[in-house]
Write a structure and sequence with these properties.
3 helices, three-stranded antiparallel β-sheet, Pnp Oxidase, Chain A, 12 strands, 167 residues, mainly beta
């Protein structure tokens, strides 16, 4: 079956590993108890090697206003430049991760340890299950204006209208 973007948009995450970071469109929550994410990262991505080496990941969510530097950072490799300097993004100490720093300016961030790497389900991406070990939630979900990911160059956000189902 041919790939289709009909399952999008998804909130764009930004992952950090060590002092490097990368925007990430392929992620999901796979467990609430224990709290776990699954991320899927391209096989040619510099961050992939860092995740395998360091074993921890910061998962961040930023508001729509941050979209330009975040998307641009996806087209620059951490192999070649220090992205935090290139995009003037200060790093913050993590509470529980040993090596990885958090990126300043996030609305929500999650410190994670790699639980497992899932092998052989994709030719172009590698999946990791992450155990969330600390949360930093500065903006409630209903007040966020997230960057929504359609594809590498296509992004949107949501309106302010809300609806609450009542029985």
């Amino acid at each position: 079956m041919e790939y289709s973007t009909g399952c999008f948009p998804l909130p764009l995450a930004v992952i950090s590993c060590g002092e490097n970071f990368h925007p990430l469109g392929y992620w999901t929550v796979v467990s609430k108890d224990p709290f776990r994410f699954l991320i899927s990262i391209g096989t040619g991505n510099h961050t992939l090697g860092l995740i395998r080496k360091i074993g921890e990941v910061g998962v961040h969510f930023f508001s729509w206003e941050h979209r330009e530097w975040i998307v641009r950072a996806g087209y620059v490799s951490g192999r070649d430049v220090k992205k935090t300097e290139r995009f003037n993004i200060p790093l913050l100490p993590a509470d529980k991760m040993e090596t990885t720093k958090l990126l300043s300016g996030y609305e929500n961030a999650y410190e994670c340890k790699v639980m497992t790497e899932i092998k052989n389900i994709s030719a172009d991406h590698v999946q990791f299950v992450l155990d969330v070990i600390a949360t930093h939630e500065t903006t409630p979900a209903e007040k966020r204006n997230p960057i929504l990911f359609f594809s590498q160059k296509n992004f949107t956000t949501i309106g302010k209208e809300q609806w609450l189902f009542r029985k």
